[in-house]
Amino acid sequence: MKLAPHLHRLGNDIVASYLIDLPEGITLIDAGLPGHWKDLLGELAAIGRSLSDVRGVILTHGDSDHIGFAERLRQETGIPVFIHAADEERARTGKKPKTGGERMALAGVVSFFTYALSKGGLRAKYVQEMSVVADGDVLDLPGSPVIVGIPGHSPGSIAVHVPAVDALFVGDALTTRHVLTGELGPQAAPFTDDPAGADASLDRLKNLSASWVLPGHGEAWQGSPAVLVDALRAR
Predict the structure, then answer these.
(1) Which stretch of DSSP H or E encloses residue 133?
(2) pLDDT of residue 121
(3) How far is the C-alpha of 44 from the C-alpha of 53, rounded, in Å?
(4) Which of 81, 105, 168, 204 sits CB 3.0–4.6 Å from 210 for a disulfide?
C-alpha cells in the first residue's frame, strides 16, 4: 500500500511494517509477521523492484510481530538486520517479561489473533545475526535513517526518523489501534514492559519534525508527532 511518494506500508492496521523506496535502494522498517513475506514480494513487484534492491531492515524492537520475515530475508539475501542492543536477546530468543492487567474486548482479541494466525504468527523465526544500533546513530541505508532511543515498551525500543521521506516510525511506542480491544485513536500500546518509561519517551518524539507518524499497529498518522503525543495524553 502506497502512503506517499517513496513510502509504502506492508500488512494492515492490525500489524504493519514499512518500505522506503529511494533511487539508491530500499530500507525496511520492521518485518511484521512471517506471512508478510508474500506482502513484501508483492509490493516490490508492484513498484518494479526486487529483493536485490533492499539494503537493510531496521527493527523497532524485538517482539515476534515485528521480526516476522527478518531472519528469512537475512538468510536468503545476506541483508543486514539492525536492532538496539537492549532488544537483541529478545529478537534472538523471544524471551521477554510478562505484563499483566491489559484491557481486552472479545472482538479485538479475536480480530488480532485470527489475523496473526493467518500470517504465521505461531511460526516465529528468531533472528540469529544482527547489527547493533544505539541512540543517535545515522545508518548508511537509503534515507539515512536516524535512530532515536525510546525505551519503555521494551528496553531497546527505538523510533526511526527518516527526514528524506518526512516520516517517523515509532514501532509500539504508541498505537492508533489497540490490538486487544480494537479501539481506534492515539493511545498507549499494550504489552508494554515499563509504562512510565514509555510515557517519558514520548517527549523525545514530540521534538521531531515529520508529516507522517507510522506505528506498528493502527492507521498511519498524517500530522506532526507533537500533535499525536498531545492527543494521546489528552485521551
Answers:
(1) strand 131-133
(2) 87
(3) 9
(4) 168
Element (H, E) at 106: helix 106-118
CA-based end-to-end distance of the chain: 29
Strand ordering across the sheet containing 54-58: 2-4, 7-11, 16-22, 25-29, 54-58, 81-84, 131-133
Instruction: Round to whole Å and give the CA distance between 173 and 84.
Output: 14
What is d(CA 97, CA 57) in angstroms, rounded to the nearest whole number?
A: 25
pLDDT at position 122 = 82
Residues 6+ apart with CB under 8 A from 114: none
Helix (H) or strand (E) holding 93: helix 88-93
Q: What is the dihedral of CA 44, 50, 55, 57, to 10 degrees?
A: 40
Average confidence (pLDDT) per 10 residues, the chain, 235 residues? 95 97 98 97 97 98 97 96 98 89 90 94 91 98 98 98 98 96 96 96 96 98 96 93
Alpha-carbon distances, residue 15 vs 95, 102, 148, 234 (angstroms)? 20, 18, 21, 25
Looking at residue 138, the DSSP 8-state letter turns out to be B
Q: How far apart are CA 203 and CA 205, in angstroms?
A: 5
List, as one string, the DSSP characters of 165-200.
GTEEEEETSSEEE-TTT--EEEE--SS-S-HHHHHH
